[in-house]
What we know:
The protein contains 13 helices and 13 strands. By secondary structure, it is α/β, with parallel strands linked by helices. Helix 6 (149-157) packs across helix 7 (159-179), helix 7 (159-179) packs antiparallel against helix 8 and helix 12 (311-333) crosses helix 13.
Amino acid sequence: MVGRRRLPASLTLWALQSGAEDKAGNPKGLAKGAATADLAEACGSEIARLLTLGQQGRAGFARTDDATDLQAVRPGDIAILVNNRTEAGAVRAALAERRIKSVYLSDRDSVLTSPTAAEVLCWLRAVAEPRQLSLTRAALATPTLAQSWQDLNRLLTDELALEREIERFMGYQQQWQNQGVLPMLRSLLMDFEVPARLLPRPDGERRLTDILHIAELLQQDSLQLDGEHALVHHFTQILRAADEEDEHRTLRLESDAGLVQVITVHKSKGLEYPLVFLPFGTSFRAEKDSQAWVRYHDDQGKLVTVFDPGPDDIARADRERLGEDIRKLYVALTRARFATWVGVAEIDQWSQSGLGYLVTGQSGAHQPSRATTRHP
């Protein structure tokens, strides 16, 4: 990429510093929400500047050795890499304010069109109405719960066996009402030994990840809804919309190609773009003590899922999270053909991010407590 007056650096860092201190005089990090908004604005402004220069014939890609022979920068030349839908929304809003159109390509869309999502919906319907025998049988017949044909047939001939399953799903319903959809799904997964059965399979890790991802989405959405039936209806509508979107995605590919691409880092793996922006380079999501479950590899290299994790589990999972963040950073920094822009914000505990660790050499990650024991 060249301009009439200068060549941009292949890697440009934006630094957003706090400058604030706490009562003890120690540096105080930026609030994550404020940093996200500021970095999104900086990203939008820089993209608008580049596109304006392109329209003026002052920025573009050299077609010959003559610096004046340029192919102007266009929106389709630009990709913005994000970690989640919140970051995507912030940066797309900043682009929209500058009348720059964009399209968001996310992992969430793909998981909602997967067979796993339809199975989870079957479970939710059965738990919401446990006395509806057809719904209970449909839930038990899903591949992930893996009930044998003999067990399913017994439900048609053995009233006691059927009543036991109905009572089990009534218990799930009560737990959903009292504790929320996430704890309920956790109990269902453990009762049917889903993690233990899925993980040894070639596609098991992907399928379990999809289930946990969907469970987290449901928990978030449930906070805005009243009751289990409202969530079932909401999730049904989301899956229907996702299917319709998937049907029309192919028809939109050609028109979307001319827009700024906003895409998750994970989904960008293996792709290449002329210009890449990573505005939220120090964003991270550390494992927390309050989490319902964590996942990490044990001493034998086997992936395990731990529900109700203890401090040691949190620490091990967070170390793996940091390693994955570093790998994602490598992916992000190798997507550009010509130039990359990276936002570095001094948010609280920013050294826990992949970029923060590489810059400071200190992760600040969870450390296991020797004074506590692992939960059973």
